[in-house]
Amino acid sequence: MIVANQVSKQYGAAHALRDVSFGCERGRVTGLLGPNGAGKSTMMRIMVGLSRPSAGAVTFDGVPYVQLPSPGHVVGVMLDAGAQHGGRTGAEVLTLGARSLGLPTRRVKEVLDLVGLSTAEAKRRVRAYSLGMRQRLGIAHALLANPEVLIFDEPANGLDPSGIRWIRQLLADHAQAGGTVLLSSHLIHEVELVADDLVLIGDGRVLATGTKQDLLNDLTSTSTQVDSDDNRALAGALAAAGHQARPDGIGLTVNAEPAAVGAVAAAQRIALKHLSRAAGSSLEEEFFRLTSGTARESVGGSAAVPDLDPSSRQHDNNLTGAVR
Ligand SMILES: Nc1ncnc2c1ncn2[C@@H]1O[C@H](COP(=O)(O)OP(=O)(O)OP(=O)(O)O)[C@@H](O)[C@H]1O
Question: Taking the domains of the chain in order of start, what are their residue ranges?
Fold first, then answer.
């Protein structure tokens, strides 16, 4: 089991992650979902020791990645498919990987077959690969030692529809065989079909976690659609009452029971034209609703932005593969 415990990361004055905690269980696919800049890549880099957290820790069955006796045998990582050396052939990249893991070179052919790269393609230099081929090579590299844990950042990036189906199946099969899978995406459809559990993050904070089904039930059960004579004033009054309201093309969609929305409108003497429970929102709609607030205060409840102690600032660089 992977456990992220109160992980925070600051880049200078910017907070990329704030107190992020979640778990990924064996036998399940966990989807880390969030819009661009939410902190997904930062979280994954911290998980595999490529970046140091400002606070908190991530463990694999109780052990931090960097303290695992042979991390490459336990955790298969695919973070940045573009990071492969462009001057090497795919076969060379995998052969070097196999050697460093103490694996026989026949494993190279096995993983090439597994990810659908032909022998001819494996002989080409990586710089000539399409994004989808690089992605497959990165996945092949992660699978070399047949690790129990897979951590993939945006694995469907660049894959064609059949490739996307293939990666979904691969991840689901891995979990079904007892493995632990964490994948990130900013595209909910990519994870909706394969993830058993979801961690929604925005602005570096966990917005919601749970099984996909529970989350969907929770998120959709309290949505209300409302239209009024003055939706701007109503949105302001709802926000002041602690509810999130967003324009939905007709009026507002609010994360509260209809009775609560009606009470706020009545208190402000705003006449309503429509008030109903929102019908069957999709997970995507709810995801956008949850992550649409750019103000940190609007997504995290008690989310005051703490002052940064200048002495704690880290001047990190941005080198791929560097601990930062
Ligand atoms: N090396 C760095 N230096 C400064 N800020 C950084 C650095 N790396 C990430 N950040 C910032 O941290 C925040 C989270 O970035 P991160 O790449 O983790 O998000 P993400 O969810 O993976 O986004 P995307 O979906 O676009 O890949 C962003 O505001 C980003 O600008």
Answer: 2-211, 217-300
Residue 12 has pLDDT above 70, yes or no: yes
Closest Cα to residue 140, out of 174, 180, 91, 177? 91
Which top CATH class is 2-211? alpha beta
Is any atom of ligand 1 closer than 6 Å to the C-beta of 16?
A: yes
Judge if the beta carbon of residue 42 lies within 6 A of ligand 1.
yes
Over the stretch 34-59, which tens digit does the pLDDT of each residue have? Answer: 888 899 999 999 999 999 999 999 99
> Given this model, what pLDDT does residue 270 score?
96
> Which residue has its alpha carbon closest to ligand 1 atom 26?
36
pLDDT in tens, 127-159: 999 988 999 999 999 999 999 999 999 998 888
Mean pLDDT of all residues belonging to the chain: 84
pTM over 0.90: no
307: pLDDT confidence band, cut at 50, 70 and 90? very low
ipTM: 0.95
What lies within 8 Å, CB to CB, of 128 at 6+ separation is none
Probe ligand 1: pick from 7, 10, 11, 315, max atoms within 8 Å of CB? 11
Q: Tell me if 8 CB under 6 Å of ligand 1.
A: no
